[in-house]
Amino acid sequence: MPITSKYSDEKVETILTEIAAVLDKHDASPELTLMIAGNVATNVINQNVAKAQRKAIAEKFAQALMSSLKD
């Protein structure tokens, strides 16, 4: 069963395009891009998720990332 999002594809694509433009502007390597993405995820979890739930949310995020990878 596909996962549905409460956010429109258009909104997600617009934000991704803007983020990609910033990374391109700074000539961010794939390694730096992944480091920044990880830092953003960590900050969002630490600032917006109750301490007792952080590990579970991080694990779900990691599982979603693994599921989204192409073979």
UniProtKB/TrEMBL annotation:
Record's signal peptide: none
Source organism, top-level taxon: Bacteria
SUPFAM superfamilies assigned to the protein according to its UniProt record, in alphabetical order: YejL-like
NCBIfam families per record: PRK13689.1
UniProt record similarity statement: Belongs to the UPF0352 family.
Protein name: UPF0352 protein KNV97_07935
